[in-house]
Design goal:
Elements (H helix, E strand, L loop, with lengths): L1 H65 L7 H36 L1 H4 L2 H38 L7 H8 L16 E3 L4 E4 L10 E2 L8 E7 L6 E6 L15 E7 L2 E5 L3 E4 L9 E7 L4 E9 L2 E9 L7 E5 L8 E4 L7
Antiparallel strand pairs: 1-2, 2-13, 3-12, 4-9, 4-13, 5-6, 5-12, 6-7, 7-8, 9-10, 10-11
Length: 342
Amino acid sequence: MGGSSSKKLREAIKQMNETLKNDLQEVRKRFETLKQENETWENDLQKFPERFETLKQKNETVKNDLQKFPERFETLKQKNETVKNDLQKFPERFETLKQKNETLKNDLQAFRERFNFQAFLERFETLQQEKDKLIQDLRDVEEKINMLEVQVKFNAVGYVLEREWREILKATVEVTLRPDLAHRSLTVSKNRIITYTGEESAVWPSVRGSEGFTSGRHYWEVKVEEKGYWALGVSTHPDEKNIPEKPEEGYWLLRLGGGKYEAVSQSIVTISLPGKKQLRKVGVCLDYDEKKIEFYNVVDTNLRFHIHCIECGLSGQVYPIFSPGSHDGDPLIIVSVKHHNK
C-alpha cells in the first residue's frame, strides 16, 4: 500500500518537473526574442541622429531658398518656421526615448532573476508605441520639408501630401461612357477617347458617364494635353448632350476656353494657375456626402496640386460629364489611374 503511494508521488513530481521544464524553455525563447527586438531598436535609435541632422540641413537649404522670394512666399516662410520649431523638439524627444530604452535594457538584464514577465511586456509594448509615434512624426516633418521644396521649385501652392493623395486614390473608379448618349458631333471609342468631328455646330457638345452616383467618394482622371477648349465635371442631367454656355442648376464643371480656366456652376469663377502653368491631366474627385467636387493638376505620379473646390447642393443621381469643345479635333482621354498602397 505504502509502496504504491510512493510510486504515484514520484510520478506526480516527475510530471511537475517536466511541466516546469517546458515552461522555462518557453520563457527563455520569449526572452531571446525580446532581446533580439531590443537590439534592433538600438540600431534604429542610433540612426536617428543622422536622419535628424540630414533633415536640419535640408530645412536650412529650404530656408535659404525661401529668402530669395520674400514677397511671393511669405506664407511659405511662416510654414518653414513651424517646421523648424518642430525639428527643435526632436532632440529632446530622442533623448527621452534613449533613456527609456536604457531602462528597458536594464530590465532585460534582470529579467531572469525577477521573472516579472507581464510587467516587462507591458513596458516593452509602451516603448514600441512611443517609438512608432516618433518615427511617424519624423516622417511628417520630412514630408512638410519636401512640400516646401516643391512649392519653391514650381512657384505653386496647393501641393497635396502623399498620405492625403493615397486617401483620394482609394476612391478611384473606372468611368465608362455611353456612346449612344453622346452629341452627334462627337466620336467615343472603346478606349474612352472623346473627339470632336466638326459635323455639328455646338459650343460644348458632351457625353456623360454610364454610371451615376448617389453617395460616397469617387475619383477619375482625364488627359487634356494641349487642347485649348474642354470642359469636365459632373451633371444631374442624364439626357443632356450639349452643355449650355452659361449652365444653370445641375452642372459643376472645370473648363478651359479662350485661354481662361473657369470653375462653372450657377456662377462662373476665373481660375489663375501659379506660374501660368498649363493643365495636361486633370483629376476629378466627387465627394457626394460632403456635397463638393474638387479638381487637381496631376503632373505625374509623385507631383499633384489642388486647383479648385466647388461646393454643390447635390441630390439624386450625378453623372461624370465630358466635352472636348468644338474648336479642335484633339481628343479628351479618360485614363486609368495607377496607384498602390504603401
